[in-house]
UniProtKB/TrEMBL annotation:
Belongs to the UPF0065 (bug) family. InterPro entries: BUG, Bug_dom1. SUPFAM superfamilies: Periplasmic binding protein-like II. The keyword Transmembrane helix does not apply. Keywords: Signal. Pfam families: TctC. Transmembrane segments: none annotated. This is Tripartite tricarboxylate transporter substrate binding protein. It comes from the Bacteria. Residues 1-22 form the signal peptide. The lineage of its organism: Bacteria, Pseudomonadati, Pseudomonadota, Alphaproteobacteria, Acetobacterales.
């Protein structure tokens, strides 16, 4: 049956505005804001996706670093951006933890964003300076327990996800320790190698050169399962006897709250195809990360679950940020 011209116009006028915007998207370059310094895992992941999403979206996808305040400055810029899909953010798990450690956070890390896709899961490794008689995490725990208050652990900042993970570990393992925050990993690694702090938790990619050179001892991984790339190394939960302990990071692509579902779906599809490329997956593997993917709903469930879990944990541990 042929529909009269007036009928076609009426149907077009009745199309939801969000569908029309999704069909037109994107109309200009898309910016992925990375709220951390260049060269980190989130930055590298964002650039891998941007390069491959560009031809699929038909507009340039560019990455902009806006580091500061443990990711708050850049994330706020995303939250305040127009909800049209042209400004996105690539955040890591500390984005969610910030809600618990920063009472004056200027946005809600879950409610003020539209999840697009979980990009990658990143392995965190617990490392210590090599020492006689310390060949396992159990050995290290025994040594620290024997001298309560004499040892310190390092993190990249008070209130960071690593601070939360390590304080959680120390409390559950019965360790009385000092927390020493650093501004980034490099300074922490130097003091760790020199023996001024006992251990730290960092991405496997960041510590692997020191481990391979014998400057640091790899004692455990933080994830819920053993890392596929080093199956012989136990998890912290196994080695320390802490059931339910899991410390790993992730990177995720977010849009501002209110971004049309059709636009989110197109971004999700473009990111999914990028993550499906072998070159991308191989590059992430060199960072100790595993390409993830999945629908926006899965990312929202992850963020909501961690907000509840770590909110309760941070209150129990009494942690606050220095950001």
């Amino acid at each position: 049956m042929r529909i009269p011209r007036r009928g076609l116009l009426a149907l077009a006028a009745g199309l939801p505005a969000t569908a029309a915007r999704a069909q037109a998207f994107p109309t200009r370059p898309v910016t992925i804001i990375v709220p951390y310094a260049a060269g980190g895992g989130a930055d590298i992941t964002a650039r891998l996706l941007a390069q491959r999403m560009t031809p699929r979206l038909g507009q340039p996808v560019v990455v902009e670093n806006r580091a500061g305040a443990n990711g708050v400055l850049g994330a706020e810029a995303v939250a305040r951006a127009a909800p049209d899909g042209h400004t996105l953010g690539m955040v890591v798990s500390s984005h969610v933890i910030n809600k618990a450690v920063m009472p004056a956070l200027p946005f809600d890390p879950v409610a003020d964003f539209a999840p697009v896709m979980l990009a990658a899961r990143t392995e965190l490794a617990l490392v210590a300076a090599p020492a006689p008689g310390v060949t396992s995490l159990a050995d290290l725990i025994a040594r620290i327990r024997a001298r309560p208050g004499d040892y310190a652990y390092a993190s990249p900042g008070a209130g960071s996800n690593v601070h939360v993970f390590l304080e959680w570990f120390a409390r559950r393992a019965g360790l009385q320790m000092l927390h020493v925050p650093y501004r980034g990993s490099a300074a922490a690694h130097a003091d760790l190698i020199a023996g001024r702090v006992a251990f730290t938790l960092d991405t496997y990619a960041a510590v692997r050169p020191h481990v391979e050179a014998g400057r640091l001892a790899l004692l455990a991984f933080g994830g819920p399962q053993r890392y596929a790339g080093r199956q012989e190394v136990p998890t912290i939960a196994e080695a320390a006897g802490i059931p339910g302990y899991a410390a790993f990071s992730w990177s995720a692509l977010l849009a501002p709250r209110g971004t049309p579902a059709g636009v989110v779906a197109r971004l999700n599809a473009g990111a999914a195809r990028a993550l499906g490329e072998a070159e991308v997956r191989d590059r992430l593997a060199t960072l100790g990360a595993e390409a993830a993917g999945g629908p926006p709903e899965e990312l929202r469930a992850l963020m909501e679950g961690e907000a509840l879990q770590f909110g309760a944990l941070v209150r129990e541990l009494g942690i606050r940020s220095d950001g």
